Amino acid sequence: SAAEKGGYDYFMLKEIVEQPQALSDTLLGRVTTDGTLTLDEMRISPAELRELEKIVVIASGTSYHAGMIAKYAIEHWCRIPCEVEVASEFRYRDPILNRQTMVIAISQSGESMDTLMAVRHAREQRARVLAICNVNGSTIPRESDGVLYTHAGPEVGVAATKTFLTQLAACYLVGLYLAQARDLKYGDEIRAVVEQLASMPEYVERVIGTVDRVRDLARSLAEASTVLFLGRHVGYPVALEGALKLKELAYIHAEAFTAGELKHGPIALIEDGLPVVVVAPSREGRGVLHDKIVSNIQEIRARGARTIVVAEEGDEVIRPFADEIVEVPSVPTLLQPVVATVPLQVFACELALAKGNNVDKPRNLAKSVTVE
Ligand code: G6P
C-alpha cells in the first residue's frame, strides 16, 4: 500500500531516502567519540584478529561490490592481504584456507545459496568466518563464527540500495577494528577516518538533497541502448555497481571498466553520443589518479562520448571536461563509495521509471537467490 511505501510510489525510492538513517543505525554504539571502535558483538576476539594472516571476502551481486571496496580499505589500513571473490566461484577452485584466515561473507539476506555454500566450505577448511548481514538469525550468520549486523531495516526493493551502503559501513568498521586490534597504523589517519565515517549519514543526506538534476539527466537518456561506466581504485566497484543497477532496473546494456583498461580495448566501443559515466577519484592523496582520469575523459570525449562525471564538490579541474557533472561531498578516498553510489542508484531508478519499469520487481530477478 501507499502507506507502507511512506508516500512513495515504489519501495526503492523510499529505501534510497532512508540511507542516512540506515547508516547512522549501523554505526550507532560501534563508533565512539574518541575515535575508537567497539565491536565485541563480532565474537571474534582481538587476540584472534591479531593472529590472522589473510582475509578472504566472498559475496554475490551488489554485496560483492561492497566486498571489493572492503579489500581496498582492509589492505590499506591493516596491511593484511585481502582477496575478494564471487561466492559462486570460491569453493570450486580449492582455495587455500586455514585457521589464520578470516573469511568475511557479505550477504544482505543471509540466504544466498552461493554464499552459504562458500561459508560451509570455508568452515570445513577451518577458516574463521565472519558474516555481514542485514537479517537477524538468517542462515549465513547462524552458520558463521561471528556476525556483524547491518541495521538497514527491511529492504523490499529487489535491487539493493540501503543494504549496500550499510554493508560498506560494516566493512569499514571491520577494517578499522582490525587496525585497532592489531595496533597497526592506528594513528592520525585512522582517527580522522573514524570521525568522517561518523559523519557519513549527513553527507549522504546532502547528496540526496541534490539528486533532482540526476533525475532530469536520467530521463534524457531513456532511449540509450548502452551506457558505459568508468572508475579507478574504489571508484571502480562504484562503476560496477552503477552498471549493475542499470541492467537490473532499466534493462539497458551497461558495462563498467577500470579507466586504465580503456585503452586496452573498451575505447573501441566509444562512438558519437555514447553516454559514459565516470566516477572521478577524490583529489585527497590520489592526485595521480585524478590527473589520469582527466586524460581518460579527454580521450573518450574526443571520440564523441557524452561524459557524465561524478566528482567531488569544488573539483574545478574536471569541470571543463565533463558534459554533465554530478557533485558529491569531499570525503576520504576510501569512504567515497558511500557518497558516489547514491547518484548512480537514483540514475538507474529514474531511467527505469522513465521506461515504465517496475523498479521494485525487475523482471527475472529475485531478492534472494536460494539455489546454487
Ligand atoms: C540477488 C539480488 C541482488 C543481491 C544478490 C546478493 O541477486 O537480486 O540484489 O545483491 O542477490 O544477495 P545477498 O542477500 O547475498 O546480499
Automatic annotation (TrEMBL):
Uppermost EC category: transferase
Documented EC number(s): 2.6.1.16
Domain SIS positions: 44-184, 217-362
Domain of life: Bacteria
Positions of the catalytic residues: 367
GO terms, molecular function: carbohydrate derivative binding; glutamine-fructose-6-phosphate transaminase (isomerizing) activity
GO biological process, one term: carbohydrate metabolic process
Subunit structure, as described in the record: Homodimer.
The name this protein goes by in its record: Glutamine--fructose-6-phosphate aminotransferase [isomerizing]
Gene name linked to the record: glmS
Shown segment, full-protein numbering: 265 to 636 of 636
